[in-house]
Amino acid sequence: MLLAKNRKSLTVRLQDEEYAAAKRVATKRKMSLNSVVEEGIRMRLAKEEYDELYEAFGQVGLEDDCDVEFAFHAQAEVVLRDD
Predict the structure, then answer these.
(1) Rounded CA gap, 58 and 75, in Å?
(2) Positive or negative CA dihedral for 74, 72, 60, 42?
(3) Is 22 exposed, middle or buried (0-12, 13-18, 19+ CB in 10 A)?
(4) pLDDT tier for residue 50 given thresholds of 50, 70 and 90
(5) Given a cut of 70, is residue 4 above it in pLDDT?
(6) pTM for the structure as a whole
(7) 36 within 8 A of 18, measured Cβ to Cβ
(8) Would you kindly state where each structural domain of the chain is located, as residue ranges?
(9) Which residues have CB under 8 Å from 4's CB, separation 6+?
């Protein structure tokens, strides 16, 4: 858990329906509303990082000098193995 001095406060404005739904989730999961919001932010940040990496790796594949043939044998070995 982070120390209080490393934390920042944030005011969040929600529609009544969103607040009620978030409160229900918090109650059901036996956690604070603050924890639900923190979890949502962490999930969104993780998704953003994933999307950025996905886009970056996609751009690598568009480069003219991109060569993935060296990995073909290893990939085939994993895909075709008989477990």
Answers:
(1) 18
(2) negative
(3) middle
(4) very high
(5) no
(6) 0.64
(7) no
(8) 15-80
(9) none
Nearest to 38 by CA among 69, 7, 61: 7
Look at the block and give the residue holding tokens 């000098």. 65
| Cβ-Cβ contacts under 8 Å for 68 (sequence gap 6 or more) | 61
Under a CB-based contact definition with an 8 Å cutoff, are residues 12 and 6 in contact?
A: no
Q: What whole-number distance in Å separates Cα of residue 15 and Cα of residue 37?
A: 14
State the virtual CA torsion across 11, 13, 16, 21 in degrees, nearest 10: -60
**Alpha carbons 71 and 62: distance in angstroms, whole number:** 17
E-strand stretches of 1-83: none
- Asked whether the predicted pLDDT for residue 44 surpasses 90, the reply is yes
